Fold Phosphoenolpyruvate synthase.
Amino acid sequence: MSSRDTANVLWFDDLHRKDVNLVGGKSSSLGEMTSSMNVPVPYGYATTARAYRYFMNATGLNDKVNALLEGIKDYEDSDELHETCEKIRNMIVGAKMPDDLADDIKEGYAQLADKVGQANPFVAIRSSATAEDLPNASFAGQQESYLNIRGEDDVVDRVQQCYSSLFTDRATYYRHKQNFPHEKVALSAAVQMIVFSKASGIMFSVNVANGDASKIVIDSIYGLGEYIVLGKVTPNHFVVDKQSMKIVEKNVVKQTIELVRDANGGTKEEPVPDELQEKQVLTDDQVIELAGYAKEIERHYGCYMDMEFALDKNTDRLWIVQARPETVWSQKKKKADAAKEEDADTVDASDAKVLVRGLPASPGMASGVVHVIDNPEDIDQFKKGEILVTLMTSPDWVPAMKKAAAIVTNNGGMTCHAAIVSREMQIPCIVGTKSKKVAATDVLKTGDVITVDATNGIVYEGKVDSIVKKDNNSAQGGQVVAAETFAPTATGVMMNLGDPDLAEKYSTLPADGIGLMREEFLWTTFIHEHPLYLIEQGHPEKVIDMLADGISKVARAMAPRPVVLRLSDFKSSEYRNLKGGEKYEPHEPADLLGWRGASRYYDPKYIEAFKLELGAVKKVRNEFGLKNLNVMIPFVRTVDEAKKVTDIMRNEGLVRNEDFKVYMMAEIPSNIILADKFNQYVDGYSIGSNDLAMLILGCDRNNDTVAHLFDERNLAVKRAIKHLIKAAHKDGKTVSICGQAPSEYPDFTNFLIQCGIDYVSVNPDMVKATKRNVAHFEQRIMLDKATGRGLQDPTDYDWE
Ligand code: PEP
Ligand code: MG
């Protein structure tokens, strides 16, 4: 056994990327750059996995922890789990570290002080978990980080706190579920000189805008780098040519705010001094110096790299603080390299073998490599361009779903989560394969090459080139062409769109506005944290700012056309998945029928969060001046609820008027039956045919077993719709529809027009077709009226 294997502490100079088992991924990668490359990495050392085990054994904690864990009767009982884990964490933090280990850590700190030439320097302490026998230890424990730590005793204390973070409720639960013994995980803490960032940023050794491998791109802002990630500040952008090492492109935009480290720990926002605001954040020389490091790091790792850097305000030195392989363009390159080989595997359409069938939830074709995700915890392993195969998706999967070439699920009907999201993002998607006898996850295995024909709901074995090419050439291929012309229509054609990243692209479609912007997309894509948790953390402004940011992107892209933002309509199981949600969300047996929509807004438990949603609307309308934003209230069960919610809105300063409309989803039978009573509280309705069909037919929209009975064209649903339009029009209220029905059944749009609907709101891929269909249907009605002929619809829709 070498001395490295028995060391409690190893310096970055002695570490290499192969040392993941000794010190975890983070420290071994910082070590690789320090020991084997000519790049400046802030000095530091790591406590080893061995040191953690020694601590746990010498203090007797290992046995005590095991005994406590064995005592857990029910891991599903979150109170019991929490109580035990808290006890374990307190025991670890409170234990006395063996003297020789504490001395090694303190000795490391003293040497670090010598190296930086300061007594008691500030350090950052970061934890990284390691797990024996497993290359991917990300599940093993929480990744704690402590900044601004100073003094040897504090350093030892924080290392112990890092150790305790292996026993968060979530990590413990997950190891149990995986049958992974707790003794097999260990924790390494990296103790590293802190950089007091005057400026910081990110760089890539490939131009991420277009994949040009001959360029390095560098983005830099004043202060800490978080504001780049959050998009709060537009960074200076530099492009450097790798060959000539010259700056070939430069974009310097004024920066007025920066995030800086607070002397008392934490961070705070400050204005950038006036004289610096319009100045280049980095000098040209610094840009070139960074580009040199980027080149060196890429050469060493042999792939495109994604790196973070910081410029120290005391020394004016540049430091590389993180380097990891870049994924998007590396993946594309790999794909292009593999394409020639793959071509040999191409299957002829006539020989293609059908593997699975399901419901065609979002049209399109794609072929690629299957990645089966059984456990939500593994979703971050999903890579761009793969085909996602799973039981069912949930809102916190959206960022991963965006990367999928196609999606295939076992469960769900045409209005389930996977169906709605993939249609919005125009990703081919097949749901409910189980309902067609063979479940996708029984047949499709990670690594298989398949072709998904989501227009017809069929999955083929191998790469069936003719199918994929046919789709790429077809008019439905998702390309947005602005030059086509469309006849004006009396019935407005709107679009359903919630993802702000797509707003610019789809704004060129001939839609008359956004008929449904689901707020849930903003939570799952940008915010990720539960609103009540953010309030508890003292950051309510984060909700307002991030919501307003996302909403304004859509409103700005569409202006002057109207945008209808639907206020939050998460179910409790979905809210629970947001960070911190566990504490606030009830466990409901059927949450589609539970605490959702309007019923939350006036509830004392949620009202403060609702006010933040309204705050974001006010910010977009009043501060950003985007008056094309209107709102919609979902899932209003009673007339009293409509009153309560609109009262709160009024008290918050959101009053209906000529240029601010408040709509209501018509998606519960009571909305239809009592439309004459609801009318006084709203400007109009949008029919949620997904929930409405579910509730009229008593047919769970997410249950594939009854998917064949779920049909919005049922006479009961049609009668309800006709009645609503009549009742609404009597009081001058408009009616739209934003459920899936008109996107799925073009003929349904004909029925709606016959009933006098004012708008139809469809998925982006159906906007053009619907615009054409509506023009056609309207002409037909006029022609029939003029000639007195035309087909009589035999169905009796009237219901009085
Ligand atoms: C509906 O119910 O038809 C609707 C559009 O809302 P969601 O699918 O988000 O419930
Ligand atoms: Mg609904």
The CA atoms of residues 637 and 670 lie 7 Å apart.
